[in-house]
Amino acid sequence: MAQRALTKVLPLRTAVSTSAGLASAAVNFLATVDVAMYVGGRSAWLAILVAGALIVLTASNFSELNGLFPSAAAIRVWTRRGLNDRLSLAASLVYATTVVFVIAADAFVLAHVFQAAIPAVPGILWVVVILGVTALFNLRGVRVAGLVQDTNAFVLLGTLSVISIMVIANGPAMPVASLFHLGPRWIQGVALGVFIFVGFEWVSPLAEEFQDARAIPRGMYMALGLIAMAFGLFALAVADVFPNPTSLASSLVPQLVVGQRALGPWGFWWMAGVTLTTAMTTFNGGLVSASRFVYALARERSLPRSWARLNARLVPARALLGLTALALVLALMVYATKQYTLLIDAGAGVESLMYALTTILIIQLRRREPNRPRPYRAFGYPVLPVVVGLVFVGLATGALTTPTTPAGTPWALIFVLGLTAAATIYVMFGLPRKRRASKRPTRSLGKVDKSPKA
């Protein structure tokens, strides 16, 4: 019987919705408020736009790499060919966990949004239900998961843009010059704005399921434009409703506050609905992409072989359910401890380091495989990729060393170092032992084959 394989059924629109949806987490509302606080108001949209332009340069790196080796294993293939096998696998394992970080952190924000909207229902119950429903959609096949992603992502970006425009239109008249006022901390605002786009590249593990692999680079660029538009408009809405955004600094639900202040109860519930779509896009997009990545690692026997099995609808069901369970456990822990900023900083740090790593991979692969066809090429090679790499090393350092306790302890850095150490130990010692054990011949109970060997 032929071995089951992933099927090429996804269109370009799902590349756009998956890339946009993974980046459009509920924590982006908090990040947008922080950008507005840094830049001092209405020029926050410009900071987000500049941050998006910086991310586009990173997207060009991912486009070249994905064009070279379109695979469900994605970063695993690129780093193995550009660096070495062990470093590649350790980096891949750490990188794969960042999706679970984002889901858990987003679950914390989602729980507080719906607890504020419907106090009678515990917020964490919404997280359990939405994660469960998302997993069920995914088990129905990648086509169903893609339709869920398309619907929620485009509704999210469209309705967020519309309500933001309504808030701006109903707000006070402001001088045009205020849109371009660059405060003393404007560069810091740009740096923070970069994290609004983090996660856009996680559409890459779906490479084996798109009708045309070229949809991934095209989808990433289109998604970045949509994200910049939607959250740039939301930043303007925040500044118009709250000329001093620091009054929102302690709120976990700034989008609800902005909606209610501008449009009353109707705006409150509209923003609650928008938040629900962010949860669906993040949960659904994260699970569908990460499950394919884990499936690819299991396919090469770097993870349990059973996680490489596909169900009747060609879904890596065990990988999907395993990731869902891990995300739920981590979400419950975050909800209990309220340490969601730890996961945000850790995830942002790992993602930024991976963005910097793409520069090394681009340079290494151009040296090692100069004649391999490249459907896409990184912009401004080699100068711009190197500049982008250095920028993201700096952003990763800032994210990982941000104090998460009053004592100033950088727990995000400690957490990532511990995770990296665990992945390295597994790659160096656990995996070789596992692979040796899988090659040992099995014996039937009570009998030994003593026939002469040919």
Q: Largest sheet, if any?
A: none
The structure class reads mainly alpha
Q: C-alpha Rg, in Å?
A: 23 Å
Task: Identify the CATH homologous superfamily.
Answer: Amino acid/polyamine transporter I
What is the global morphology? globular
Q: What is CATH's topology name?
A: Amino acid/polyamine transporter I
CATH architecture: Up-down Bundle
How much of the residues is beta strand, in percent? under 5%
| Distance separating the two termini | 29 Å
Number of strands: 0
| Poorly predicted residue ranges | 442-454
Note the total helix count: 14
Q: Percentage of helical residues?
A: 55-70%
Number of domains: 1
Essential attributes:
454 residues; mainly alpha; Amino acid/polyamine transporter I; 0% strand; globular; disordered C terminus
Can you describe this structure?
There is one protein chain. This protein has a single domain, classed as Up-down Bundle (Amino acid/polyamine transporter I). The radius of gyration is 23 Å and the shape is globular. The protein has helices spanning 12-23, 27-39, 44-68, 75-82, 85-117, 123-139, 142-170, 186-194, 215-241, 254-299, 317-337, 340-368, 383-400, 411-439. 54% of the residues are buried. The protein has 454 residues and is mainly α.
